[in-house]
Every structure is written in structure tokens, then in C-alpha cells.
User: Which sequence fits this backbone?
RNA sequence: GCGGGCGUAGCUCAGUGGUAGAGCACUUCCUUGCCAAGGAAGAUGUCGUGGGUUCAAAUCCCAUCGCCCGCUCCA
């Protein structure tokens, strides 16, 4: 058996088609023409997604002692999004170059100086023409021929025209100094500023005035920060510990693309794992273990600072993906320091090679104390924890040791330039720290559930070339889901439909198995066809009831069935009494 | 938002102004038999949506929605 070669585009098309045909994923609101950026899960997709969600939740909560769950609302106090920075960063005003249609943020336009040229239009000898006038900036020192060539090249690529482009009625309309009306790269005049609001708005309360505006959350994480104190005070947890949440989030993506990959409504699985600041670790443990290549990340240690915790969570999350059969398909991207957002200290992306491109499944960020500090400032409610171990350890430090810690931090803050804390702020922070108080730092593994479903489908999809009954090669479609996450675990099949005693026996086996396994019953068509039907939706096991099951070939085969394996297509004979335990073990 | 391509049965697609099609899938029945191909019968469409041109539109024109590709955006 070998895999049929497919191009990336063919592969993706087949996956999309299979998902619709078999009830994994449907377009939202399809009977009304669809709705861009929204997708529904059909019967099998809902099961698959539920299995993945359940695995993540159990890996976080049941399998660990140091993480608890939360289930918060989608609509929250608008102040949360002010504090988190989303109201500002998600509502950019954008302008477009009229020449290239390239967008630029209004507040990022670089002032330009030079002469403004205007053309009434452009055309080619082959019949293409541009009706609208073109304004473009001839920068100081730029040769006019170089500008003409650049404009022609841009027009050719933007409008997909070939052949020589002729620019019409060139006019010099005057000089400008430090103008913010031209695109920095292509020199094209910028159009009107338009707001790009990436947060979805709604109104809470029946009056729907501006004062009632609220937002559908653009991420689930902020609810965790907003409820941090309540969880801390009610759950007998102490730092280091985590709070996890699974739920819907909403963004007005500029371009929803690539099937379900970038949707406007999507589901996130997020953990905020709260840790002590490195200074607290140093006081308590005497040192902070730096991360080194090959470090032992299996068991958290008291002297771990944020770096080790960050790497630990990368390893933990990798283990999760291995357990659902994606381990061999991941790539990692360590964001270079200069690309990090101002509040992040490190970020690792876990990527999957989708047929359309390799892109992010999960981001694991070390975010320092940024979020809780923001909420402390905006809400006016302290978000500090009290750490008695820290207080006791700090009490044993000499004034010189304390000053040394402080000076070290001061040097770090100075290195940050304008965004660093001043000396008074650092002294105040250490005073609280020595008394046992601090705002915890956080490691944030944030995964997209819909992206995971898509990755699982893409990874599982295979077309094999297998010989048919006559030995001719034939294509077999199969979804090679790990049995743990397969939407249906076992199909029960009577060999023939028109023999009531076979059907009755098969029904009895089905009724027993479905008590604790996702099972299905199929008596339609030839047996081989039914096997292939189950392969196509990724059912790992088929159980076939035949006349031997009924005892026709003697008592030793009575109450045995054929157990057929999806990937190898091998069959074995097994007693009905052993079936449930055997299958349960395989899907655990 | 810009440019290009596309939208016909559940799926894949043919159909360039004159009666809406094929293959697969599906439904029912027959078959003592294990890897999609046996036999018989059957159901399936506002040709994405709205408007226009025409005696006549799946076909031509306009608008709109959706999908794909590129640009753009992406805490």
C-alpha cells in the first residue's frame, strides 16, 4: 500500500470536500449564501472537536494538581479591554495607497518630501486601461525615469496586466514638505483614513446607545486575569499555579482565509500559569536556574525562573500533541527578541504544516506581570499575592544582599530606556517583595481548537493505492485519526442485511459496545464497501458478525466476531466477551 | 479593501441564447458471505442570489453573497 501523490491544493480541496460530504464541517448559514469567516461542525466534526477539547481539559485539570478551570462569559465589562490594550491596538485607522492598494496604519505614515506628479490614467496597446487619475510622489533625488518605471511595474502587478504600460498626461502639480499623504515605499497617494476595528461590537441593554457598547471577547485569557483574585481566594491554590479556560472568541479578521484556519468566531484553549518573579525565586532558592539546551524539564523545581517554566510548558504542550498523534508533524518558531511585543519576554509558536502553509497552532508566551498589573492599575484593585515562604526567606537577607538584588534590577530597567521603571518605582516594588507581596508573572500557552481540528484532519487524511479483489490498484481514502480522538471508535456490521438472525446478533453487540464507546451500526451494501465507508471517516475498528458468530461452524467459533483494523486492514477473530475491554484499552 | 479565477444534483464536473445532463453517492428489493466495480427499480435541481437585455438566459450585462489564489491585516 502506498500513498497517492497529491499537490497541496488538490489535497486541501479533497479534505474540504470530504469534510462537507461526511459531515465534519459545513459553511455557516449556507442556505442563505454563506457567511464569510464562520463555520459549523456537523455530526462527526462535533464529536472530533469535543474529543480534542476534552483531551486538553483533562490534560490541564484532572492530570495535574496545579491547574484549575474557569468558564467565563463572552461579553465582559468594556474596561477589561481598555486595560488589556485591545481597545487601542484593535482599532487601527488605516489608509491605502491608491497606486498599489497597500495598507498602512494612519499613525505609522512616514512624512515624505518631494514633487507630486499626476497622471490622468494609464493604458496598454492591448486594450487595458486605468480610468482613475494617479498621484505619486517623486522623492528628492529620485530620477523621473525610475519613478515612471516603478509606477508601471506596480500597475502591471496590481492589475495583472502584461505588455507595455503607457502613463497618460504627466503633470507636475507642485512640491510638498513632510507630507503624510503618500505611501513610504511606493510613493502612491494615500486614500481616506478608514477605521479597522478588529473587536466585535455589541450593545448591552435595550437602549443601544454609545454608552452601552460592549465587545465580544477577542481572546479568552483576559477573563482569567479579571477573575484571578476570586480563583486565588476560593480554590486553595498558591503560586505557582494555573487557571485554564476553553471558550469562544471573536475577531473581525480583515481577511478570513484558508478554510477554518482564520475564522471570525473561533474557540480557544488557554492557560495562564502564574509564577513567582525571578527576584522572589532568588530570595527563596538562593539562585535562579538558567535554561540551557537539554535541561531536564520533566519535573518543576523550586529554583525555576520564568525561562525554565516557559520551556517546561513548551515541552508539556508538545507531549499533548504527541498523545493525539500530531507529534511528528510539528515545527517550532522561537520569536527573536526584537519581534516580541513590549509586554512579552519570550514567545514560542508551535506550527503545523497545513497544505496551504505552515502556520501557528499554539503560541506559548512568557508575559511577565503585564496583564495583572494593567488590571491592577485600571480596576484600582490590588492583584498581588502574599507569599509567606518569600516573606520568611526575605527576612533572613542582610541589607547588603537586599540592596544588591535591587541594584541588579535597576541596571536591567535602565537598559530598557524609556519603558523601564525609575528608581523610586523599583524601590517601592522591592519593599513589597521583601514583605512577601508581588504581582505574579505568567506563562501563557494559548491554542486554537478549530485550528487543531483542521490540523488533525489534514494530518489524518490519506489516499492509499491498494489492490482490489482482482489485484488491480485502487484508491482507498482513509482518515488515520489516533483512536483516542476518532469521532467514532467502532462500527458494528452484520455481514448480510437480509438475515434477521445476523442483524439481531449485530444489534445486540452494538447495544453493548455503545454503552461506553462512540459506536455506529451499518448494514447497508456490500461488506467491503462498508469497511471503506468507515475508513473514510476514520473509524479505527470494525466488528463484523457472521454465521460463525451464530455457531454454524461449531461451538468453538460461536460468539466470536471479526475485528478489523483500519490502518492495516488486518482482521482477527475475537470473543464478544473480550471486545469491550479490548476496544476501551485501545482508545484510552 | 484591491486584482485574478470560480459558483450547475449530496460530491466531482460537462453544458457559449432554444426541452437540465454524466459519473459516483443515495433509497428499495434480490445475493451464505470479508475490502468500494453483481442484478432490478427509484428519488434528486429556485443552474449562488437579485435585477436587466431578449420571443427565449445556466449561457449576455449589472449588482450582490460566498469560495479559491495573490496583495493587505494578523496582541
Assistant:
Amino acid at each position: 500500500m502506498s500513498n497517492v501523490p497529491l499537490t497541496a491544493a488538490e489535497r486541501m480541496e479533497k479534505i474540504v470536500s470530504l469534510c462537507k460530504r461526511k459531515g465534519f464541517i459545513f459553511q455557516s448559514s449556507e442556505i442563505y449564501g454563506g457567511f464569510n469567516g464562520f463555520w459549523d461542525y456537523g455530526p462527526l466534526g462535533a464529536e472530533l472537536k469535543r474529543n480534542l477539547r476534552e483531551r486538553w481539559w483533562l490534560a490541564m485539570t484532572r492530570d495535574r494538581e496545579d491547574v484549575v478551570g474557569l468558564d467565563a462569559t463572552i461579553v465582559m465589562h468594556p474596561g477589561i479591554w481598555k486595560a488589556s490594550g485591545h481597545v487601542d491596538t484593535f482599532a487601527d485607522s488605516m489608509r491605502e495607497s491608491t497606486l498599489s492598494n497597500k495598507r498602512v496604519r494612519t499613525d505609522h505614515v512616514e512624512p515624505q518630501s518631494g514633487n507630486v506628479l499626476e497622471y490622468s490614467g494609464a493604458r496598454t496597446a492591448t486594450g487595458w486601461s486605468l480610468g482613475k487619475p494617479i498621484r505619486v510622489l517623486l522623492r528628492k533625488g529620485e530620477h523621473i525615469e525610475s519613478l515612471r518605471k516603478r509606477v508601471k511595474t506596480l500597475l502591471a502587478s496590481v492589475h495583472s496586466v502584461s505588455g507595455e504600460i503607457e502613463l497618460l498626461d504627466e503633470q507636475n502639480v507642485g512640491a510638498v514638505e513632510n507630507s503624510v499623504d503618500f505611501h513610504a515605499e511606493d510613493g502612491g497617494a494615500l486614500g481616506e483614513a478608514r477605521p479597522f476595528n478588529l473587536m466585535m461590537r455589541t450593545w448591552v441593554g435595550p437602549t443601544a446607545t454609545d454608552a452601552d457598547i460592549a465587545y465580544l471577547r477577542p481572546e479568552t485569557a483576559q477573563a482569567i486575569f479579571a477573575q484571578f483574585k476570586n480563583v486565588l481566594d476560593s480554590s486553595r491554590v498558591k503560586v505557582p499555579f494555573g487557571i485554564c479556560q476553553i471558550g469562544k472568541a471573536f475577531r473581525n479578521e480583515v481577511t478570513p482565509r484558508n478554510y477554518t484556519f482564520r475564522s471570525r468566531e473561533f474557540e480557544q484553549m488557554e492557560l495562564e500559569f502564574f509564577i513567582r518573579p525571578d527576584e522572589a525565586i532568588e530570595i527563596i532558592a538562593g539562585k535562579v536556574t538558567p535554561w540551557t539546551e537539554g535541561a531536564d524539564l520533566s519535573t518543576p523545581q523550586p529554583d525555576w525562573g520564568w525561562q525554565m517554566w516557559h520551556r517546561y510548558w513548551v515541552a508539556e504542550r508538545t507531549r499533548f500533541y504527541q498523545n493525539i498523534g500530531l507529534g511528528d508533524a510539528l515545527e517550532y518558531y522561537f520569536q527573536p527578541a526584537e519581534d516580541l511585543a513590549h509586554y512579552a519576554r519570550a514567545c514560542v509558536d508551535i506550527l503545523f504544516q497545513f497544505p496551504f502553509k505552515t502556520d501557528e497552532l499554539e503560541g506559548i508566551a512568557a508575559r511577565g506581570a503585564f496583564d495583572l498589573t494593567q488590571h491592577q492599575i485600571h480596576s484600582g484593585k490590588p492583584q498581588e499575592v502574599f507569599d509567606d515562604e518569600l516573606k520568611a526567606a526575605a527576612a533572613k537577607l542582610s541589607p547588603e544582599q537586599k540592596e544588591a538584588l535591587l541594584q541588579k534590577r535597576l541596571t536591567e530597567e535602565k537598559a530598557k530606556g524609556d519603558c523601564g521603571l525609575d528608581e523610586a518605582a523599583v524601590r517601592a516594588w522591592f519593599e513589597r517583595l521583601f514583605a512577601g507581596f508581588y504581582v505574579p508573572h505568567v506563562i501563557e500557552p494559548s491554542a486554537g481548537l478549530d485550528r487543531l481540528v483542521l490540523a488533525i484532519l489534514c494530518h489524518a487524511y490519506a489516499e492509499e493505492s491498494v489492490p482490489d479483489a482482482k489485484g488491480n490498484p485502487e484508491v482507498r481514502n482513509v482518515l488515520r485519526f489516533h483512536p483516542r480522538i476518532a469521532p467514532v471508535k467502532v462500527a458494528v456490521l452484520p455481514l448480510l442485511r437480509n438475515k434477521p438472525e445476523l442483524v439481531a446478533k449485530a444489534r445486540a453487540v452494538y447495544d453493548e459496545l455503545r454503552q461506553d464507546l462512540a459506536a455506529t451500526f451499518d448494514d447497508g451494501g456490500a461488506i467491503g464497501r462498508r469497511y471503506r465507508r468507515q475508513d473514510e471517516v476514520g473509524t479505527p475498528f470494525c466488528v463484523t458478525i457472521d454465521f460463525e458468530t451464530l455457531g454454524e461452524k461449531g461451538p468453538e467459533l460461536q460468539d466470536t466476531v471479526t475485528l478489523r483494523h483500519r490502518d492495516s486492514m488486518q482482521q482477527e477473530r475475537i470473543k464478544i466477551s473480550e471486545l469491550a475491554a479490548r476496544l476501551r484499552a485501545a482508545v484510552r
Remarks:
- The first strand of chain A starts at residue 2 and ends at 3.
- Chain A has a mean pLDDT of 87.
- The two ends of chain A are 28 Å apart (CA to CA).
